[in-house]
Specification:
Elements lengths: L8 E8 L2 E7 L7 H13 L4 E8 L5 H16 L3 E5 L3 H10 L1 H4 L2 E2 L2 H13 L3 H10 L1
Parallel strand pairs: 2-3, 3-4, 4-5
Antiparallel strand pairs: 1-2
């Protein structure tokens, strides 16, 4: 009996109203990328602007998975929003590094670290100065 293809499991949770945490498990490849894309599109449709992609349980990802990540990264930037990869498995991290995706899309070790990056980006480089100036006005 042949082994069934590795199914993809995507669990979506909402740490905040505009933040979707997608916990992905299984191979992210040409056979499963469309399913992953549907989950992301659904979250975009529901107004999420920030996407945290937990790839710790993804043992393999090919160019199809990377293309989906880069596509949602571009869409999120236009909102404006962001995409963050969390705890990629070693083989996936190697692919992200070799292709330069990890230079474009931030990689974090935890959900908390990724949320801190979301907050820092929302404040902007002069976020502190803006807040101080608003207090003085």
């Amino acid at each position: 009996m042949p082994i069934a293809q590795n199914p993809l499991s995507v669990e979506v949770t909402l740490p905040r109203e505009d933040v979707a945490l997608l916990t992905v498990e299984g191979y992210l490849d040409v056979d499963t990328a469309t399913e992953f894309q549907h989950h992301l599109a659904n979250q975009l449709h529901h107004g999420r602007r920030h996407f945290l992609l937990d790839l710790s349980a993804v043992p393999f990802m090919d160019s199809s998975g990377m293309n989906i990540i880069l596509r949602v990264y571009q869409e999120a930037r236009e909102l404006p929003g962001s995409v963050h990869i969390i705890r990629p498995a070693a083989a996936v991290r190697r692919i992200l590094d070799l292709t330069g995706v990890s230079i474009t899309v931030p990689v974090s070790e935890s959900v908390e670290d990724a949320l801190a990056l979301v907050d820092a980006k929302a404040a902007g480089p002069d976020g502190e100065q803006r807040r101080e100036q608003e207090q003085h006005d």
